[in-house]
């Protein structure tokens, strides 16, 4: 039996109820709210409120259910966390009692020992977990509210040196704002140069109809700045933009941002060991800014890629790219063609189908999709109530989202060298293919359409999309036509396909992706001895050590750089925090040792990249069976991190000085 009540160094002095709003609802109202809650997180809250862990022996811990296991073998319906309806009812009844007891005790929480917290983590992870895994989770969740990744440059000498180490950050999206927050906390002066007039990066730019994030909002936020107020579980772009904008203002980053200003070039000056960064504003005024270090936070997906199709420029109607949707553009009542069937098209098509007179979907490859009935669902009042008021519920809910995404389906992405099937890369990947095929089959009766929309490449070869059925329903509307014949050319009036047909339209939407393999494009970055980054990378072959540092480019750091994109198994917000932690610790090393620059060793960089390439090549997305934006023109995967997120977290906790040359 797990025991509570042994005070412990780590948690005894922390007020775990800090920030909670008081519960003022009646038991009947509370009972109704409990209906919406995540069962695992609710069990944890019960333990915290009562100080009694006996429930852990009465109900099993939550289980991650993948789409394969979702239809349980016994035929019994399993709810989120793998619980039966009876188990959920039992937990809710216990929660109602626990809340009443806790209120009767004046809302005091019994102290919780560190050992108990460990037991709770183990319970929530489903059993044995390694110690470093516990640390990894504890850092992300921070039950005690202590931001473990905050920089701690407390030595007055180092703090004074920090004040003379100006840093320039390129981009005010998720990564750039985070870097600003951390540099500010460390007392390091910084300027963020942002090409847009506002904060948010990709969430500022992508405003096409239906644009929303496809990971849960409650985990798509900084670990130290949770948002309990998302209106949807998978929030719309504008809400996410507003979140980052609010964080920038709350952490006093906004005043450091130069908006509507673009970095044209950054040159390392060997004589002064400083970066000279040339910027231009919207009016063409140029200026050179100086910095001791440059952090690129430009993202991988921010330069829209128009398709190379003959005659596109001759089209007389409206021509837009999904990533540069003009303000207020409404295509209602028009004949519209959408080119592409990736993540952006998948969200745009159901929206346009509702209002367009005719919609022609020009699909080159179909997408695999995960069944997710809650994809468009609003966050209910009960969930918001619990996030605001129920002790530790919000922490454990984030834990659950984080843990399930981290553990996710990584194994199903790895290729088995002995598996010989063009449709999948391993037996586990094939089981996933069958489950995803069944999801498509459950929605499409027409055999011709089924053949068009059933992917013939392995799952995870391209990004798998979250789906609540709206996409395939849209394709089956009377005003929608799916065309899989290749596009031959565009004329003044529309798109001509390989069967000679002209699809006459008023508007063409190119949902054709981004220049993802051209990192830091189109800036000119010149390092030590006049070496150009573009030449070093031969244009599209971006490589960096840990995706962060590059040989010959002293004090240049990347966030979301080469080989850091996550396909499955992780959270991009967590990865950004790992990268910013690493960058801050590199700067700390410089300040501690009194060096001007650090530069990644070529051999360290090369060895790391060999491992990256080896593992990536043995995944579904690295398979020669697929084309995707993760690969460059030579077929090398330049976008994706091939490792488990915990491994990357370990690699980026602390820089090893031996990996660097200091000047
Ligand atoms: P994408 O995944 O690269 O998809 C581009 C689509 O355009 C593909 O279907 C591609 O076909 C097609 N295409 C490209 N050139 C073409 C041509 N010349 N003729 C015909 N078809 C052409 O781009 P995206 O949809 O913008 O998504 C990019 C990434 O952004 C996603 O993978 C995701 O990471 C992110 N994203 C996320 C969200 C979200 O969180 N919800 C939403 C949107 C985007 P092929 O597949 O045959 O190449």
From TrEMBL:
The answer to whether the entry has keyword rRNA-binding is no
Query: What terms describe the molecular function in GO for this protein?
Result: monooxygenase activity
Cite the entry's keywords alphabetically: Monooxygenase, Oxidoreductase
PANTHER family for the chain: FAD_NAD(P)-BINDING DOMAIN-CONTAINING PROTEIN-RELATED (PTHR42877:SF4), L-ORNITHINE N(5)-MONOOXYGENASE-RELATED (PTHR42877)
Protein name, entry field: 4-hydroxyacetophenone monooxygenase
């Amino acid at each position: 039996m797990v025991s509570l009540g042994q005070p412990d160094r780590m948690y005894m002095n922390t007020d775990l109820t800090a920030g909670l709003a008081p519960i003022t609802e009646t038991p009947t109202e509370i009972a109704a709210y409990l209906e919406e809650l995540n069962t695992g997180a609710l069990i944890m809250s019960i333990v915290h409120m009562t100080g009694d862990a006996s429930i852990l022996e009465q109900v099993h811990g939550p289980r991650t259910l993948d789409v394969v296991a979702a239809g349980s073998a016994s035929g019994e319906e399993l709810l989120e966390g793998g619980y039966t309806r009876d188990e959920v009812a039992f937990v809710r009844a216990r929660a109602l009692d626990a809340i009443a007891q806790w209120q009767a005790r004046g809302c005091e929480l019994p102290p919780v020992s560190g050992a108990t917290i460990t037991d709770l983590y183990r319970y929530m992870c489903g059993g044995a977990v390694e110690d470093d895994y516990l640390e990894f989770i504890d850092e992300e969740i921070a039950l005690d509210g202590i931001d473990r990744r905050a920089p701690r440059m407390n030595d007055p000498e180092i703090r004074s040196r920090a004040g003379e180490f100006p840093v320039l950050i390129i981009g005010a999206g998720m990564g750039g704002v985070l870097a600003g927050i951390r540099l500010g906390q460390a007392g390091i002066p910084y300027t963020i140069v942002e090409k847009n007039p506002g904060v948010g990066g990709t969430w500022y730019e992508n405003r096409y109809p239906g644009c929303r994030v496809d990971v849960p909002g409650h985990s798509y936020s900084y670990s130290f700045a949770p948002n309990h107020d998302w209106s949807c579980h998978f929030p719309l772009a504008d809400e996410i933009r507003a979140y980052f904008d609010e964080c920038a203002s709350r952490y006093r980053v906004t005043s450091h941002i130069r908006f509507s200003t673009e970095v044209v070039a950054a040159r390392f000056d060997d004589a002064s060991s400083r970066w000279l960064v040339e910027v231009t504003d919207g009016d063409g005024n140029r200026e050179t800014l100086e910095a001791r270090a440059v952090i690129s936070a430009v993202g991988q997906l921010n330069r829209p890629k128009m398709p190379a199709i003959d005659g596109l420029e001759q089209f007389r109607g409206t021509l837009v790219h999904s990533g540069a949707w003009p303000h207020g553009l409404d295509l209602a009542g028009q004949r519209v063609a959408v080119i592409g069937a990736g993540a952006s098209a998948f969200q745009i098509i159901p929206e346009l189908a509702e209002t367009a007179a005719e919609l022609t979907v020009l699909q080159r490859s179909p997408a695999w999709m995960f069944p997710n009935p809650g994809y468009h669902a609003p966050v209910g009042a009960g969930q918001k109530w619990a996030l605001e008021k129920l002790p530790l519920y919000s922490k454990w809910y984030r834990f659950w989202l984080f843990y399930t995404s981290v553990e996710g389906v990584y194994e199903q992405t790895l290729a088995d060298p002995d598996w010989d099937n063009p449709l999948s890369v391993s037996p586990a990947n094939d089981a996933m293919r069958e489950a995803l095929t069944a999801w498509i089959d459950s929605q499409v009766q027409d055999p011709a359409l089924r053949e068009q929309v059933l992917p013939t490449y392995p799952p995870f070869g391209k990004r798998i999309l979250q789906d609540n059925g709206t996409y395939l329903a849209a394709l089956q509307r009377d005003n929608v036509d799916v065309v899989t014949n290749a596009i031959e050319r565009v004329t003044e009036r529309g798109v001509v396909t390989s069967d000679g047909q002209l699809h006459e339209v008023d508007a063409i939407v190119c949902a054709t992706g981004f220049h993802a393999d051209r990192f830091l494009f189109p800036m000119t970055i010149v390092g030590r001895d006049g070496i150009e980054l573009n030449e070093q990378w031969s244009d599209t072959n971006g490589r960096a050590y840990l995706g962060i540092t590059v040989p010959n480019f002293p004090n240049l750091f990347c966030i979301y750089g080469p080989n850091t994109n996550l396909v499955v198994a992780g959270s991009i917000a967590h990865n950004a925090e790992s990268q910013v932690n690493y960058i801050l610790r590199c700067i700390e090393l410089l300040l501690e040792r009194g060096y001007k620059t650090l530069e990644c060793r070529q051999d360290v960089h090369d060895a790391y990249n060999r491992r990256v390439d080896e593992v990536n090549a043995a995944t579904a997305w690295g398979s020669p069976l697929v084309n995707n934006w993760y690969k460059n023109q030579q077929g090398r995967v330049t976008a994706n991190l091939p490792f488990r997120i915990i491994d990357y977290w370990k690699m980026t906790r602390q820089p090893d000085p031996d990996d660097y040359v200091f000047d």
